[in-house]
Amino acid sequence: VRIGMDYGISNRLNAGFGRNSFEKTYDGFLKYKLMSQQSGSIRNVPVSIVGFSSIALKTLRTGDPAGEPDLKDKLTYAYQLIIAKKFSSAVSMQISPTLVHRNAVVENTDANDIYALGAAGRIKLTKRLSLNAEYYYQFNRISSSVIQDSFAIGFDIETGGHVFQLHFTNSRAMIEKGFITETTGDFFEGDIHFGFNISRTFQLY
């Protein structure tokens, strides 16, 4: 479970905070829109680009007799460039080059920096229903590791006031540091979890 709140500081800048039951993690993020897709006689921009940065603090106790890790060792950072293109009113795609930095790792052979590339697509089936899919490939994953690439497929259902998102995925975590670097299930071997999100927009003024 993740309960979060996002706030639009401006038309370009968005900030958010959340609490995750997975590893009792708290996370915060900033998103900034660098450019928006547009077409016209004066200016033509083929894609939208958004910069994303997040920090996550794992508060689940390890139970290590030697003592709990320092605060800095519980922190993980994610940096992402989201490049999206809307091909039509029904079809959109995006790629997301990503860096996840972990201050501490479990094994000496594990990398502190994980480089990944995400690819996602969205097809509107009806006015209020869309089919979505997303996949993250890790470039420097150790071949002997149990960590798997994250894959998800699902639906968005718009009801007017709310958006319901239904997911089938091999990931348990809901934030970047978790589903990109800590997914252990193999989707195509039947390790599939079902989850859903509910989004609601509030106008404060």
Structure overview:
Helices cover 2% and strands 53% of the residues. The protein contains 1 helix and 11 strands, in the order ββββββββββαβ. The chain has an 11-stranded antiparallel β-sheet. Strand 5 (75-86) and strand 6 form a beta hairpin. The radius of gyration is 18 Å and the shape is globular. The chain starts with a strand and ends in a 5-residue tail after the last strand.
Radius of gyration: 18 Å
| Share of helix, binned | under 10%
The succession of helices and strands, N to C, reads EEEEEEEEEEHE
Judging from the principal axes of the Cα atoms, what is the shape?
globular
Strand order of the largest sheet: 1-2-3-4-5-6-7-8-9-10-11
Distance between the termini: 29 Å
In short:
The chain is an all-beta fold. It has one helix spanning 176-179, and strands at 2-8, 13-20, 25-35, 48-58, 75-86, 91-102, 113-124, 129-138, 150-158, 162-169, 193-200.
Chain-wise SSE layout:
Layout: E1 2-8, E2 13-20, E3 25-35, E4 48-58, E5 75-86, E6 91-102, E7 113-124, E8 129-138, E9 150-158, E10 162-169, H1 176-179, E11 193-200
Antiparallel strand pairs: 1-2, 2-3, 3-4, 4-5, 5-6, 6-7, 7-8, 8-9, 9-10, 10-11
Primary descriptors:
205 residues; 11-stranded antiparallel sheet; 53% strand; globular; 1 helix; mainly beta
